[in-house]
From TrEMBL:
Superkingdom of the source species: Bacteria
Cofactor(s) annotated in UniProt: Mn(2+)
Residues the entry annotates as binding Mn(2+): C100, H102, E136, H162, H365
Name used for this protein in its record: N-acyl-L-amino acid amidohydrolase
Amino acid sequence: MNVVEEIKQIQDEIVKWRRDLHQIPEVGFDLPETAKYVANELSKMGIEYKTNMGGTGIVGIIKGEKEGKVIALRADMDALPIKEDTKVEYASTNGNMHACGHDTHAAMLLGAAKILNKHKEELKGSVKLIFQTNEEGAQGAKAIIKDGALENPKIDAVLGLHIGSIFSEVGDGQIGVGYDKIMASFDRFYIKIKGHGCHGAMPHVGVDPVAIAGQVITAFQTIVSREMKPTHPAVVTIGKVNGGTAYNVIPNYVEIEGTFRAVDQKQREMIVQRMEEITAGITKAMRGDYEFEVVWGAPPVINNEEFTKDFVETAKGIIGEENIIELKEPSMGGEDIAYFLNEVPGTFFFLGAFNEEKGIVHPHHTPKFNVDEDVFWKGSALLAQGALDWLNK
């Protein structure tokens, strides 16, 4: 069975699902309207599912007529607290926005589900459909796994995708695949540099946290540039510095927030260790104090080589070998599908959906972000045929 022609026949339906979901974006774990919509569509298809998994996530199951392994197809459903400015007729009006394409991921998974369920007698095994919350907060995958998404029945592999322009070399309608580390970990840190406030004209009677913060920020830049092997990609970024209330007053504290990224778990752990050591050393030397907190996000995204090779063979029959781009270097962006890939082998691939001729050129996480809807059938077909081929291998 080749699903391409059948998926193409429901392309308009996939677009409708996406546009409906696009108008009701919700953030974090609590996605009641989104979950209700997805559950309703699964019910129409006659697919069995569980609700309230990892927040308001949904886990469906398509059981094949023959015994076999279990593969999970995963899509995220959450949006971002961004006010939309796309001017499309189906734009969000509730103050949130699907500015990263998760509405399309859910719609494409519904498309794959519809065709797979129609042909479940041809499945040697079962397909789990995972509609996940809170990917943007890097907590949804972990939560839905904790609630049993990978069990009963236990899954043996996972397949997922991301739409857009995360990799610029992947053109509209093409896919990008990598055979190993494909995305970085992503974590957040918060530091409070504590001093002793005083008059700006008399700094000797206080302890200046602004001066301390400046030294800490400068020293952080040497972690990657001087302490890590240059061929191993990593990032330490300060995104927010806040302190003081008046130009002539030395404040009591300064707050620093940022992110650190790595594609190697040991380096990830080394970065956070060195950040705290540097903060502790500088603040002590300059008579200050500090608080240091880390909000751990997702680990690096690591594809399984054997599974990916099989998936590429599937993809050749759907979009042609010339439209499969091998990704030689990882993105320093992150994705919490990493938690699934830490448990079972699988692949996370990237579907190009930017089109300059249509004016679809704005990046992820911005108010004007949009995607080329004409590629949706490809995403659904790759998920469906990928699951079918792997189960029947």
